[in-house]
């Protein structure tokens, strides 16, 4: 049997699911026990006790038959009334209630009333107003008769006590279970928070705790985090060293070429500058999103500065929408590099760029659109890979890039716990690049 229909309604957090696992069996057990107790025990015992009382009432009614007056009838029934611990009195016709009263929480009263009406046709009403007195109204030859006796003769005393006791201890044990469960789930929550922070480029203090399995997962996470950090550091140091070592011979080449005639040195100087630019690009990619530390930043202010710097550099960039109502934990240097790469691509492959931003309680979205040729949907996954060159899609003849621009942007987005999404601009018709970061 498939339960896929239930998934949209099921809670998503581990704490809520564990709570359902605790509460649902407890509620089912309480319902089953309560129903079984009410139907099998209380109902049977109450029926037997009511049947006995109905015989006693019949005996008293038979002793009153044939009496000429009410006093004589009460006198004949006095011995039986005294022995059965009942009180009797005759009423006027208007004093008899049409419907008997009972307490709302008395589960056995309906059984008593139905049984007395079934066994004694002369009963007109049954009233059980409290736990000290039961009133049965009969229609006799001498008029309405009221019989009063202890309600404990009809049903067990306080039948609701068992249910109240079960509910009380169920709530008590469930509360204790919740406290214990919260202490057991807290280490898992701390591990999830540390992993989420590391996925967003932040390393928060974390010490494994909790059950053996949770401690093992925590130690594995710490080992993995240390290896990743060491690998990133080694990669950055290696590429930085390579870039630094290659700058020296490139500088010597520039000095040597500067002594040659301009017509002979110009092509070679251009090649040297191109090599220098490629080295800078490789170094930028090696640093990725690890440059700088996360801090609370107003993304709107940061984006306005980036657009203003791009305008001063002579690029055609417009800031169309900038909804900002709070701060977000970001690496400003990495975000600046990512947005500048998107703006550079936009003005390189198109004539203008349009930047917008929206900030919601859950996400931050930075969008850069252009009026260029765009990227076909089937090539967008390939476009964000390092060293990918999509000549037909992005008109690579305009520049001499190495295919790291979008890869750097995707790396920055992932380091902030977000993603880079590529699509088609509805406003300009070119590429639409969204950096979406969860808050």
UniProtKB/TrEMBL annotation:
Ranges for domain HAMP: 182-233
CDD domains: HisKA
InterPro entries: 2C_sensor_his_kinase (IPR050980), HAMP_dom (IPR003660), HATPase_C_sf (IPR036890), HATPase_dom (IPR003594), His_kinase_dom (IPR005467), HisK_dim/P_dom (IPR003661), HisK_dim/P_sf (IPR036097), Sig_transdc_His_kin-like_C (IPR004358)
Membrane topology according to the record: Multi-pass membrane protein
Cellular compartments annotated: Cell inner membrane
SUPFAM superfamilies hit by this protein: ATPase domain of HSP90 chaperone/DNA topoisomerase II/histidine kinase (SSF55874), Homodimeric domain of signal transducing histidine kinase (SSF47384)
Reaction(s) this enzyme catalyzes, per UniProt: ATP + protein L-histidine = ADP + protein N-phospho-L-histidine
Enzyme Commission identifier(s): 2.7.13.3
TM spans (from-to): 14-38, 162-181
Domain Histidine kinase: 241-439
Protein name: histidine kinase
Species the sequence originates in: Ruegeria sediminis
